[in-house]
Design a protein that fits this description.
355 residues, alpha/beta, Isopropylmalate Dehydrogenase, 2 domains, two-stranded antiparallel ribbon, 21% strand, binds 3-isopropylmalic acid, binds manganese (II) ion
Length: 355
C-alpha cells in the first residue's frame, strides 16, 4: 500500500522531532505492507521570511496531493505573534479539517511525571479530546480592530456542530468508551446553547452511550480533580485549544501530546501539540514522542491500521522504561537526546512488529 506523505517540518524544534517520526515510518514500511514516499512541503516562519508567505502555493499543492500531512511546528520569536502560526489555521480551514483529535494518555510508567497527587490520578488518565476545528472564533468572521474597539464573532452552525459531535459518538463507540462528555458555556453563549441541543439530539441516537454536559470552567477543575472520570470529551474550538493544553501537561509533558487535524476520507494533518519551542530549538533535546504518537494517529485515522497504531504506542511506553528526554527525566533512567529517544522507540517497534 503506497502512501504519499507531505512533510512540513516548520520552525524551531519542528524539524528535529519530525525527523524522528520519519525514521519510525521508514521502519514501519520495512515491517509492513505500507510504502511511504515523503515529499517536503516547506511552511511557517522561516519560509515567510524567504517568500513573504507562510504557505507557498507549491507547498500547498504538495499537501493537497498527498495522502496525509506530517507537520512539525510553526512560530519564530522574532516574528509578530501569528505571522508564522497562521499557516496551521489556513491548512485547517482550506482542507476543512473539522476534527482536532487530541488524546491524553498517562502511561503507567510515567505516573511519576504527572503533576497530580496519586489520589487525584486515581484509576489513570486516558481521555480523547475531540475539538471542533473550523468554526467559532477561529473562523475569524467579522473581526474588527481599531484603537477603541476589537471584536471577533463566534459563529457555530448546525452542520458544524453535527459533524463533530457525530464523530465524537462514533469515536466513543469505536474505542468502547462508556461516556461522552460535552464541554460548553451554555449558561452564557448562544453558540453553546445550539451546541448543547445538538449534542443531545445526536446523543439520543446512541442509547448505549452515557452522555453528560458540563460548563468549561467546571470542567477545568474536574480535569485536575478527577481526570479518570472522562473518556471521550467533545468541545468547541477555543475551549478545546485551552483544555487540551491543560490535559497535555497531565501526561508528563507537553512534548508527549499528539494530535490529528482530520477530515475523514480526505488529506489530514498530524502534528505534535507543542509549538516550535524556540528556547530549546537546535539543541537536539526536544521530546520526539508527540510527533511519533502523531504518526500513531495517522495510522489509526487516515490509514485504518489499528494494529500498527497500537504497536507504536506500545513501543513508546516500553521505551520510557529505558530512556527519556530531559523534559520527563527520572533518576535511574538514562537521559536521552532527541534522536537517541527516537532510536530507542525504533528498537522497540522492530521487536514488536516482528512478532
Ligand atoms: C494549537 C495552537 C493553534 C490554535 C495556534 C497556533 C493558532 O495553539 O494548535 O492548539 O490555537 O489552534
Ligand atoms: Mn493550542
Amino acid at each position: 500500500m503506497k502512501k504519499t506523505i507531505a512533510v512540513s517540518k516548520g520552525d524551531g524544534v519542528g524539524p528535529e522531532v519530525v525527523n524522528e517520526a520519519i525514521k519510525l515510518m521508514k521502519i514501519i514500511a520495512d515491517y509492513s505492507e505500507f510504502e511511504f514516499e515523503f515529499q517536503e512541503a516547506p511552511v511557517g516562519g522561516n519560509v515567510w521570511k524567504k517568500y513573504g508567505t507562510n504557505l507557498p502555493e507549491k507547498s500547498f499543492e504538495i499537501i493537497k496531493n498527498s495522502d496525509a500531512l506530517l507537520f512539525g511546528a510553526a512560530g519564530l520569536p522574532d516574528l509578530p505573534p501569528g505571522v508564522a502560526e497562521s499557516v496551521i489555521l489556513k491548512i485547517r480551514q482550506e482542507l476543512d479539517l473539522y476534527i482536532n483529535l487530541r488524546p491524553i494518555k498517562l502511561f503507567d510508567n510515567l505516573r511519576d511525571r504527572c503533576p497530580l497527587k496519586e489520589e487525584f490520578i486515581g484509576e489513570g488518565i486516558d481521555i480523547a479530546f475531540i475539538r471542533e476545528n473550523t468554526e467559532g472564533l477561529y473562523a475569524n468572521k467579522g473581526a474588527v480592530l481599531n484603537n477603541d474597539q476589537a471584536e471577533n464573532l463566534m459563529v457555530y452552525t448546525r452542520k458544524g456542530c453535527e459533524r463533530i459531535i457525530k464523530y465524537a459518538f462514533e469515536y466513543a463507540k469505536r474505542f468502547k468508551h462508556e461516556k461522552v462528555t460535552s464541554v460548553d458555556k451554555a449558561n452564557l453563549l448562544s453558540p453553546s446553547k445550539l451546541w448543547r441541543q445538538i449534542f443531545h439530539e445526536i446523543g439520543d441516537e446512541y442509547p448505549t452511550l452515557l452522555k453528560e454536559d458540563i460548563y468549561v470552567d467546571a470542567f477545568c477543575q474536574w480535569l485536575i480533580r478527577a481526570p479518570y472520570k472522562f473518556q471521550t470529551v467533545v468541545t468547541g474550538n477555543l475551549f478545546g485549544d485551552i483544555i487540551s493544553d491543560e490535559g497535555a501537561f497531565l501526561i508528563g509533558s507537553l512534548g508527549m501530546a499528539s494530535s490529528g487535524n482530520i477530515h475523514p476520507g480526505k488529506v489530514s494533518m498530524y502534528e505534535p501539540i507543542h509549538g516550535s519551542a524556540p528556547d530549546i530549538a537546535g539543541k537536539e533535546i526536544a521530546n520526539p514522542i508527540g510527533a511519533i504518537l502523531s504518526v500513531k494517529l495517522m495510522m489509526q485515522e487516515s490509514f485504518e491500521s489499528i494494529s500498527i497504531a497500537q504497536e507504536i504506542e506500545n513501543s513508546v511506553e516500553e521505551a520510557l522504561l529505558f530512556g527519556r528526554t530531559v523534559d520527563i527525566k527520572k533518576e535511574g533512567i538514562n537521559t536521552l537526546n532527541t534522536s537517541q529517544m527516537g532510536d530507542l522507540i525504533i528498537q522497540k517497534i522492530k521487536e514488536n512488529l516482528k512478532k
